[in-house]
Design brief:
Rossmann fold, alpha/beta, 408 residues
Length: 408
């Protein structure tokens, strides 16, 4: 009877007795990724980064003596699917969930994370409002938010003396938020600047015909085109058609994340103008020349036979952050995890040593800023003349975040 009682206790704590060896049950981590739909390129790369990190962690003893088990699912780039998967993963025992999907899908999952008190950490989805107006105790973002992208870009636009702007963007949540904030920031900081009347364009996600838009932009004769919301399948088509019209030989360009490997995938060398497009990236090519960056790039390339993207690095760092938070907490408990994660430092492969701010759960990650170019040694689009710009200087203060959340 005593033996059976002891066995039941061990089973209840996740320990099984067999052949004299105790084996802990795995810690389940949900991974919602966009493996199909508009954001498949980003979501698939992020999932590979998460898998690589989990394999490395498990090979070195796991977390608190327990292996990590990933519960993965494709949200098909749809908010309703993100919500469904979040519910299913939590019901299936996930202690925390990692989201590698677009801003709109993240917002849907974040609402459930708050309701169910389950930590949600994202490795894609840059909309600044996610950690500001919509932020809450159970939501974390380890990479930059859009402020850290458009802030340095606005600096460069002002430094370049550009005062007449046009904009074009895919019509989705992040694009709308980005354009609005860039234009507001320019208006506040550059009184001489103006958005040319009738020169703000919105195109469907995945649109590939930009002929009429480019013709209209050229007719307005702006000094600079902000096209930061053109992403995914639209980007290569836009760059190709812009090259045919000589768009960026006549005006400057600004795209805060054109340096992302995912955003510039498929862009041809012949379509890249020489140092006329201001851009940024949190995983630039050529990869950053640091030990952490080199080790990650080597491990990822060996595992997947392809180079990593931004989301790969974000998800990889996020898995190690989860490990560190549980180990700091000393137990697998969601509330203890959140407490341990607040203010926790970590290392990102291409951004170095970072910290998660305790009051809004946004990391102080910055971006590499420079010109869009060609990474010859990697035979792919990349960046030139890059400089790292810390995110701290562009993020809102604790008081500002409180005010944003109060008036939402």
């Amino acid at each position: 009877m005593l033996r059976n009682l002891l066995l039941n206790v061990l089973l209840g704590t996740g320990l099984l007795v067999g052949a004299g060896v105790a084996t802990a049950q795995p810690i389940k981590i949900g991974v919602i990724s966009a493996d199909s739909g508009a954001w498949a390129l980003y979501g698939g790369a992020g999932k590979k980064g998460a898998v690589l990190a989990a394999e490395e962690i498990n090979a070195h003893g796991g977390v608190l003596g327990r292996k990590l088990e990933l519960i993965t699912g494709d949200n098909k780039s749809r908010p309703d699917e993100a919500s469904r998967l979040f519910r299913d993963m939590v019901a299936g025992g996930a202690e925390v969930v990692v989201g590698i999907v677009g801003t709109g899908e993240i917002q849907a999952a974040s609402t459930l994370a708050r309701e169910q008190k389950v930590p949600l950490l994202i490795a894609f989805g840059y909309g600044r409002f996610l950690t500001e107006e919509a932020g809450h105790r159970y939501f974390f973002r380890l990479m930059s938010n859009s402020r850290a992208y458009y802030g340095p870009m606005v600096d460069r636009i002002i430094q370049g003396g550009y005062t007449r702007y046009c904009t074009i963007s895919n019509d989705f949540a992040f694009g709308r938020d980005l354009v609005a904030n860039v234009m507001d920031d320019l208006k506040k900081r550059n009184p001489k600047g103006e958005l040319v009347s009738g020169c703000e364009f919105w195109v469907p996600v995945n649109a590939t015909d930009f002929t009429t838009y480019i013709t209209a932009i050229l007719a307005q004769k702006p000094q600079l085109l902000m096209f930061g919301g053109i992403v995914g399948n639209s980007l290569p088509a836009f760059m190709s058609q812009s090259s045919q019209f000589g768009l960026f030989k006549q005006i400057a360009g600004a795209h805060p994340s054109l340096g992302w490997p995912g955003n510039n995938a498929g862009v041809k060398e012949a379509d890249i103008p020489k140092k006329t497009i201001i851009s940024g990236s949190d995983y630039p090519y050529p990869p950053v020349d640091t030990p952490e960056s080199k080790a990650f790039h080597s491990a990822y390339t060996k595992r997947w036979s392809e180079g990593p993207m931004s989301e790969s690095a974000h998800a990889y760092a996020t898995m190690y952050f989860i490990k560190a938070a549980f180990e700091k907490a000393g137990k697998v408990d969601r509330e203890a995890f959140v407490d341990a994660a607040e203010g926790l430092g970590f290392v990102h492969p291409s951004l170095g040593k970072l910290t998660v701010r305790p009051f809004d759960h946004q990391s102080n990650a910055g971006v590499w800023v420079g010109y869009f170019g060609w990474a010859k040694d990697y035979n792919r689009p990349g960046m030139e003349d890059i400089t790292y710009v810390p995110g701290d200087r562009y993020l809102p203060s604790e008081e500002e975040v409180k005010a944003l959340r109060t008036k939402k």
